[in-house]
Amino acid sequence: MRFHRTLAIAGTVFALASVAACGSLPSAGSAEEAGNFLKSTLSCDGIDFASPREVQQVQAMGMSGVNGGGECDDPAGGGGDVDFLTVEDMEAFQTAVKGDEDEQDDLMIGEDFAVDPSSDDQRRQLLKAGLMFLNCSPDFKVPTGSASDEGEAEGCVTTDYSKDLD
Questions:
Q1: 26 with 111: CB under 8 angstroms?
Q2: Looking at the predicted structure, is the pLDDT value of residue 12 above 70?
Q3: How far apart are CA 131 and CA 3, in angstroms?
Q4: Distance of CA 49 to the CA centre of its chain
Q5: DSSP 8-state symbol, 10
Q6: Distance CA 90, CA 81 (A)
Q7: Which residue has the higher pLDDT, 3 or 76?
Q8: pLDDT at residue 16 above 70?
């Protein structure tokens, strides 16, 4: 399994957030359901689920609140595999992510799972499916015209805006 990318991302910033006020973020409930969401949204060839040992490694790297994950293999349109984590405690997870500012605006979240897309096309498809970007950068300001809501952790927001999205 190519779960190594998820582990690397977790070390730098693999975060999710749910937004109670938003209420419309997609929910997964399990790694299998998150995988099915990605398979239908991105047309993955298959889903590789993280083993309990791999999930423990992500947790040991400081990613609190994580309870599962995996990888969407060879999504349609290319761009590379897409990693995801399922989260049982979104506030703890966002708090852990807040400490690492690298690539935070590229991480996309649902109600109880996070996704690390690897291309702008994937980001656009996931936005269309209802996921939002998580941003916990202290100086981040949501541009006029972009949707946003407060995240679970103080200083974090969810938004449809990413400075890196072309």
A1: yes
A2: no
A3: 22
A4: 15
A5: H
A6: 24
A7: 76
A8: no
3-state DSSP of the chain: CCCHHHHHHHHHCCCCCCCCCCCCCCCCCCHHHHHHHHHHHHCCCEEEECCHHHHHHHHHCCCCCEEEEEEEECCCCCCCCEEEEEECCHHHHHHHHHCCCCCHHHCEECCCEEEECCCHHHHHHHHHCCCEEEECCCCCCCCCCCCEEECCCCCCEEECCCCCCC
For residues 83 and 116, the answer to whether their CB atoms sit within 8 Å is yes
| Pairwise CA distance, residues 115 & 25, whole Å | 13
Q: Which residue has the tokens 């399990």?
A: 30
Q: Give yes or no for a contact between 156 and 97, defined as CB atoms under 8 angstroms apart.
A: yes
Tokens of 64: 């609190």
Q: Angle 66-70-74 (CA atoms, 0-180°, nearest 5)?
A: 150
Tokens read off for 105: 């605006």
Q: Please give the single-letter amino acid code of residue 87.
A: V
Domain boundaries, the chain: 4-159
